[in-house]
Design goal:
The chain is of the alpha/beta class. The chain has one domain: Alpha/Beta hydrolase fold, catalytic domain (Rossmann fold). Helices cover 49% and strands 13% of the residues. The protein contains ten helices and five strands. A five-stranded parallel beta sheet has the order 1-2-3-4-5, with helices on both faces.
Length: 230
C-alpha cells in the first residue's frame, strides 16, 4: 500500500491509523487557517516521497483536507477513501461552535475538558477501553495552536460538491453505524455526489472506524481496492 495516503481526523494525529504501508502524515497548523494550506502540506510530502498519483483517504477533517487537495491537484489522485466525512460546508451554528472551541483552547490550552467534550461524539457507546484510551491520549497530546487552527480552517471550508462531481475515479465511502457527527444519511449524500462510489456502513462503531475496529476497516479497504483494481 505504498501509494495509499490517509489523513487523520480532528483533533487526532497519524496514530489513529493502523494500516501497514500507508503514508499517514500528521497535519499541522501554519499561517492563516485554511485547509488549502493543509492540502499544500500533503502535496509537499507526496513530492518528497516521489509519489505521483495516490489513493487518497481521509477521516472527518482528513476528508476535508482531501477535498482541498482535489481542488489544487486532482491529477494526483487515482482513488478516494472517505471515512465519516461530508462534502458540504458548515452551517452557521457549527461555525460558531468551532470558533468558540478555538478561542477556549487558546485561553486554556488542551486539557481533559477537550477530551471529555469530544469523546462522546467520536466513539460508539460500547467502544473498547483500548480505543477510548488511544483517542484520549491523542487529544491530550495535541498542540493548542494546531487545535485552534484546525477548527478555524474547517469553519471556513467551502462546499465541495462541484469538485467531487467532476471526478472520475473509484471512491469508497465508509461510515460508522453510530456516527453522531456525520451519520449514515450524510455519507449517503456524499456517495451519490461521486460518480464511481462504493458506499458501506460499518456496524457497531461511531465516528472513528479505523480506531474502533481497525481489522474491519483494513478488510473493507483491501477488498474495495481489489474490486476496483487499485
Amino acid at each position: 500500500m505504498d501509494d495509499l495516503v490517509l489523513l487523520h481526523a480532528f483533533p487526532l494525529d497519524a496514530r489513529m491509523w493502523d494500516v501497514p504501508g500507508a503514508l499517514t502524515p500528521s497535519l499541522r497548523g501554519h499561517g492563516e487557517p485554511d485547509l488549502d494550506t493543509a492540502a499544500a502540506q500533503v502535496l509537499a510530502v507526496l513530492d518528497e516521497r516521489g509519489l505521483g498519483t495516490v489513493v487518497l483517504g481521509g477521516c472527518s477533517m482528513g476528508g476535508y483536507v482531501a477535498m482541498a487537495l482535489l481542488r489544487r491537484a486532482p491529477e494526483r489522485v487515482k482513488g478516494l477513501v472517505f471515512v465519516d466525512t461530508k462534502h458540504t460546508a458548515d452551517a452557521p451554528e457549527a461555525v460558531e461552535t468551532r470558533h468558540a472551541m478555538a478561542d477556549r483552547v487558546e485561553r486554556e490550552g488542551v486539557g481533559e475538558w477537550l477530551a471529555d467534550a469530544m469523546l462522546p461524539n467520536l466513539l460508539a457507546p460500547d467502544a473498547s477501553d483500548t480505543a477510548r484510551a488511544l483517542v484520549r491520549t491523542m487529544i491530550l497530546e495535541q498542540r493548542a495552536e494546531d487545535v485552534a487552527w484546525w477548527q478555524r480552517a474547517m469553519a471556513k471550508r467551502p462546499d465541495s460538491t462541484d469538485v467531487l462531481e467532476s471526478l472520475d475515479v473509484p471512491s469508497l465511502v465508509l461510515v460508522g453505524e453510530h456516527d453522531k457527527l456525520t451519520p449514515p444519511d450524510v455519507a449517503a449524500k456524499l456517495a451519490v455526489t461521486l460518480r464511481r462510489s462504493t458506499s458501506e456502513r460499518i456496524e457497531n462503531v461511531g465516528h472513528l472506524p479505523p480506531v474502533e475496529q481497525p481489522d474491519e476497516f483494513r478488510a473493507r479497504l483491501e477488498r474495495w481496492r481489489v474490486q476496483v483494481g487499485l
